[in-house]
């Protein structure tokens, strides 16, 4: 593992968001259960949320496979997946406005307990930004909702490529006016860090072992040679001298 002294060139930290910064699963299930109770709509929201996240990678792969169709932002992919799930689970009585509200649930996600304090510490020394597959409006609204103190919002939408495409990692460094090795990717997903590392970024891993609830199968611990491994964002701040 690289020592902190080797990281003196790092100027910016970019963060995976879903699962790393925010607890999407608990947030969505709680949000939808409360909302549906007010509306008198009955559904297995836990199964729907898990199914929805299960369609995430495949929906982005479809965009990759068909460049001739153009880039499709995550809000639109989420809406398409939701419509399929509503049909599959035979959820009745949802209006178009309801479907829009549910889709925008991804804009209303709560941070992990250490996220805001850790980001605030890291911001004292580094430029901090999301580098997420979420679209710009989603990430901006989420930051307002969750109190995330980003310096700017970087999204796959800016590069019209989803992670782990190289255009995302290299595009982030380019927009920041930095070399890849001056940018550190922070994620709870070993695959995201492997892609970032391959393209020259530095890496920090923080485990989020409850991200998928009882369905979690991977990412309980670091599996690569990452520059920093910490238990939370405060631990990353400690190792970076913030």
TrEMBL record:
<dbReference type="InterPro" id="IPR006439">
    <property type="entry name" value="HAD-SF_hydro_IA"/>
</dbReference>
<keyword id="KW-0378">Hydrolase</keyword>
<dbReference type="InterPro" id="IPR036412">
    <property type="entry name" value="HAD-like_sf"/>
</dbReference>
<dbReference type="GO" id="GO:0019120">
    <property type="term" value="F:hydrolase activity, acting on acid halide bonds, in C-halide compounds"/>
</dbReference>
<dbReference type="InterPro" id="IPR051540">
    <property type="entry name" value="S-2-haloacid_dehalogenase"/>
</dbReference>
<dbReference type="Pfam" id="PF00702">
    <property type="entry name" value="Hydrolase"/>
</dbReference>
<protein>
    <submittedName>
        <fullName>2-haloacid dehalogenase</fullName>
    </submittedName>
</protein>
<dbReference type="InterPro" id="IPR023214">
    <property type="entry name" value="HAD_sf"/>
</dbReference>
<dbReference type="InterPro" id="IPR006328">
    <property type="entry name" value="2-HAD"/>
</dbReference>
